[in-house]
Write a structure and sequence with these properties.
By secondary structure, the protein is mainly alpha-helical. It has helices spanning 22-37, 44-54, 68-83, 87-101, 128-147, 179-198, and strands at residues 106-108, 117-119, 153-154, 163-164. The strands form two sheets. It has a two-stranded antiparallel sheet with strand order 1-2. The chain has a two-stranded antiparallel sheet with strand order 3-4. Strand 3 (153-154) and strand 4 (163-164) form a beta hairpin.
C-alpha cells in the first residue's frame, strides 16, 4: 500500500511559537523523521527544506541531495525514541544516543543572530545530519524531563505510522497522530463491527472493495 501523502507541518500554537522551545523543536524533529522515513522519492529534499523553514531556519539553507542519506540515517536512529514504550525506555534510548552520537553541551547565539540556547553538536557549522540528530536528542530529552513521560509516540493507524509529539499535559498515552487518523480508525472499526454482525467479509481489510490498497 503506498504511503499517505505527508501533510505540511501544522502552524505552531502562539504559546509554542518560540523557535527554541523544547516543544517546538520536538515537533520539528517529528516532522523531519516523518519526511525522511518515506521511501526515497523526488521532492524529499524540498519537503525537508520546507520543514526547516517552517520552524524558523533562514536562507540560505545550504541543503543538498548529498545530505539526504545521512539525514535518513539520523531519522532512523531517532524513530525508536518516539516508539519507546514508556518513559524509562525512551530515556534509555536517548541516553544511548547522547553518549554515542553527540558532543558536549554548549551554548550558542549563532553570532548574535538568536537568543542563547543549548547545542550538543560539534559547532555551529556542523553538517545538517549531525545537527538534526544532536538537536533532536537534546530537545526530546528536555521534553521528557519537563513532562515526566515519553516525549513522543507512533501513530497506531496501520495506514499512517507517523511519529508525533503529544500536545497538552494529559497522562493518558495518545494513540493517533491526528484527528484524521483517529476518525479513520473509528470508521474502520465501526464497519468491521457491522460486517461481523452481518457475517460479511471485513470491508476494511486489504483487497476488499472498501479496504486499503
Amino acid at each position: 500500500m503506498p504511503p499517505l501523502p505527508l501533510p505540511p507541518p501544522a502552524p505552531l500554537p502562539a504559546e509554542d511559537a518560540a523557535r527554541h522551545s523544547a516543544l517546538a523543536n520536538s515537533r520539528r524533529a517529528a516532522d523531519l523523521v516523518n519526511v525522511l522515513s518515506r521511501e526515497p522519492a523526488d521532492g524529499t529534499l524540498d519537503r525537508v527544506a520546507g520543514v526547516l523553514r517552517a520552524y524558523g531556519e533562514t536562507e540560505p539553507l545550504g541543503l543538498t541531495g548529498a545530505d539526504l542519506p545521512e539525514l535518513r540515517e539520523a531519522a532512523a536512529a531517532l524513530r525508536p525514541v518516539f516508539a519507546a514504550d514508556g518513559v524509562d525506555a525512551a530515556a534509555e534510548r536517548l541516553n544511548a544516543l547522547l553518549a554515542e552520537r553527540t558532543g558536549p553541551l554548549r551554548l550558542t547565539s549563532h553570532g548574535g543572530a538568536s537568543p542563547w540556547h543549548p547545542h550538543v553538536d560539534a559547532d555551529d557549522d556542523a553538517p545538517w545530519a549531525r545537527w538534526f540528530l544532536a538537536s533532536s536528542c537534546l530537545t526530546l530529552a528536555v521534553l521528557l524531563w519537563e513532562r515526566g513521560r515519553a516525549p513522543g509516540g507512533v501513530c497506531a493507524s496501520a495506514a499512517c505510522e507517523d511519529v508525533f509529539v503529544p500536545l497538552g499535559s494529559g497522562r493518558e498515552r495518545r494513540r493517533y497522530c491526528s484527528r484524521r487518523c483517529a476518525t479513520r480508525e473509528r470508521v474502520a472499526a465501526h464497519r468491521r463491527a457491522k460486517d461481523a454482525l452481518r457475517g460479511e467479509p471485513d470491508s476494511t481489510a486489504p483487497g476488499t472493495p472498501n479496504g486499503p490498497r
